[in-house]
Specification:
alpha/beta, four-stranded parallel sheet, 21% strand, Urease, subunit C, domain 1, 2 domains, TIM Barrel
């Protein structure tokens, strides 16, 4: 098919006024101005009219399991207070509660233009049933902890590996997520790094999220340190440097690693992340919920770190008024603009598309319009000028006008 639009926005190239995208099966064959593409093709074009046609958004970090916790947990005084609150909140949830929450979250992402999501899966029993119930392209990172359960690292990892090996899906993938340095044993980090390198798997890990975590690892003290010590965590791995340095020591930084948050950095951490080609995922609304220190985007970008965007979970998103928040990458982009007006809109859109694709090992395949890329795309209404296209994307609110994943319409354009 040929899709024509007022503006075609490839992300990796300038906007094309009166542009067209030629789709062959489930991939893109050409992206050109309509006048150049039209004479060479016999296929009938679908004119989408006054819209911006752009690649589907890539949500590089989410917790679909927790969607139905939206508005349930008010912002805490400390990060450890929140851990206690969500742990208590989950005790009453059943398999059906998690499944319903996951699927509702997937629907919210589709409505708001996400075509690929990197999701942390705390309930692996949901897979592959939830995969088969949504057209979303999903990377499910199986969450591993072990401190509270008193389980051995090898046992935890073997269970996750067996789950991954048992799963099969044409478009979706499972991978590993040791939850965070404070909630896992060092041996689990080492074992995860080794098997991920051997199998060429991606890894997602929360790291340096809070000041309490930073104090725990940097100085072997603080509320998180004391709380975990009371829960019989062996804190001998603390006091030897930052959480980022902790991952380096256990060989868990690399091109295959998505480091989530990275809000609290020591001197040299940005250089370490760049040296190891590790990807950082920033979640603006979650960051605002906890009132973390300012995200050091400029420092990380100058070091050469690939920066991506994610929604995190609705358990860490502020409720405004009576309206419960929803998973929405446009809302994340808008909040990032508010927090840091020095970032060019085009850069923010890259964080929500092509950068996330690169983090997931899908560079050139999703998050951009280029020959041989997957036909994942969305359309949003647009009546403005070409010079304000990127700003218009960031300002968009509400459902997208159309969405396609792998060459199939998910939200059909208005006829």
């Amino acid at each position: 098919m040929i899709l024509r639009a007022k503006i075609v926005l490839p992300v990796t190239a300038p906007p094309i006024e009166d542009g067209a995208v030629f789709i062959d099966g489930n991939s893109i064959r050409a992206v050109q101005p309509w006048r150049d593409l039209r004479p060479h093709l016999r296929e009938k074009a679908m004119d989408l009219g006054e819209v911006i046609l752009l690649p589907g958004l890539v949500n590089a970090h989410c917790h679909l399991d927790y969607t139905d916790m939206a508005g349930e947990l008010p912002p805490p005084k400390t990060f450890t207070d929140w851990i206690a609150a969500i742990t208590a909140h989950k005790t009453g949830w059943s398999y059906s509660d998690y499944a319903r929450s996951w699927l509702r979250g997937a629907q919210q992402l589709l409505k708001s233009g996400v075509t690929t999501v990197a999701d942390i899966e705390a309930m692996p029993d949901l897979l592959p049933d939830v995969w088969n119930a949504t057209p979303l392209r999903v990377f499910s990172f199986l969450e591993m902890t072990g401190i509270r359960a008193r389980r051995q690292p090898g046992e935890i990892l073997n269970e996750a590996v067996k789950t991954i090996e048992s799963l099969s899906h044409p478009g979706n993938h499972a991978a590993l997520s040791p939850h965070a340095p404070y909630s896992t044993q060092p041996e689990l980090l080492k074992l995860t790094a080794a098997i991920a390198a051997k199998r060429k798997w991606r890894v997602s890990i929360h790291v340096a999220e809070s000041e309490q975590e930073f104090e725990m690892f940097m100085h072997a003290r603080g509320k998180m340190y004391d709380w975990l010590k009371r829960n019989e965590r062996d804190n001998a791995d603390c006091g030897h440097g930052s959480p980022i340095a902790h991952l380096v020591r256990h060989k868990l930084l690399g091109e295959n690693v998505l480091a989530i948050h990275a809000n609290c950095l020591a001197h040299g951490d940005a250089t370490l992340l760049a040296k190891h080609h590790t990807h950082i995922v920033h979640c603006p609304r979650s960051h605002d919920y906890f009132k973390h220190p300012k995200f050091e985007r400029e420092r990380l970008a100058k070091a050469g770190v690939n920066l991506c965007l994610g929604t995190d979970s609705l358990a860490t998103t502020r409720k405004t008024g009576k309206q419960k928040p929803e998973l929405d990458m446009f809302a994340e982009m808008r909040l990032l603009v508010d927090a840091d007006k020095s970032i060019p809109p085009a850069t923010i859109l890259q964080m929500a598309t092509v950068n996330g694709a690169r983090a997931l090992g899908m560079a050139g395949k999703i998050g951009e319009f280029s020959p041989q890329a997957q036909a994942d795309l969305i359309a949003i209404p647009f009546g403005g000028e070409r010079s304000h296209v990127h700003e218009a994307v960031l300002e968009h609110a509400g459902a997208v006008a159309a969405s396609m994943i792998d060459g199939r319409w998910i939200i059909s354009p208005p006829s």
